[in-house]
Design goal:
This protein is mainly α. It has one domain. The chain contains six helices and no strands. The protein has helices at about 5-30, 40-45, 50, 55-95, 105-115, 120-160. The longest helix is centred in the middle third of the chain and has 40 residues, at about 55-95. The chain is elongated.
Length: about 160
């Protein structure tokens, strides 16, 4: 997270609590996800000449490691979506009834004015934007990792020990 001022700290504490609840829920489901293995980065960045030198077992290992990393990235996507949804709900709750106090040509303009007029909702909106930026990045990376995992899996089946 970025540095937070005192108004953002309260929002961040709520997000930390949300992440704690999600972690407890995942644990109750038996889902234990590690960030990454140093080999993941290695397999993601192999050049074609190096890729051609891998045997069937190495390709299989790469496919499994990348699939596990893809699961980790999916978990991160879900958490960012949860923060975005939570922030949206809190903003709506906070500004309900306040938009009519602002004058603008559209509801969206009045909504943004109401958000800016309240430091708590302004901080929630910043948090939402940050989470959306992270989500956009993770979604791209997740697609790339999943694609590479399928390639290694295909290579593993095509190669002979």
């Amino acid at each position: 997270m970025t540095e937070l001022n005192s108004g953002e700290t309260s929002s961040q504490q709520h997000v930390d609590k949300l992440n704690e609840i999600l972690t407890q829920y995942e644990t109750s489901l038996g889902v234990k996800i590690n960030k990454t293995d140093s080999k993941v980065e290695h397999y993601m960045n192999l050049k074609p000449a190096e890729l051609n030198k891998l045997d069937r077992d190495q390709c299989g290992e790469a496919a499994i490691l990348l699939a596990q990393y893809s699961l980790y990235l999916q978990r991160q996507q879900n958490r960012e979506k949860a923060v975005i949804n939570w922030s949206d709900s809190k903003i709506k709750l906070q500004i309900s009834g306040e938009t009519q106090n602002y004058h603008g040509s559209s509801f969206d303009e009045r909504r943004m004015m109401a958000i800016k007029g309240n430091s708590y909702t302004a901080n929630l909106f910043k948090l939402k934007m940050l989470s959306q930026a992270r989500l956009d990045t993770i979604e791209f990376l997740s697609g790339r990792v999943s694609f590479l995992s399928r390639i290694y899996s295909t290579l593993s089946g095509a190669r002979h020990g």
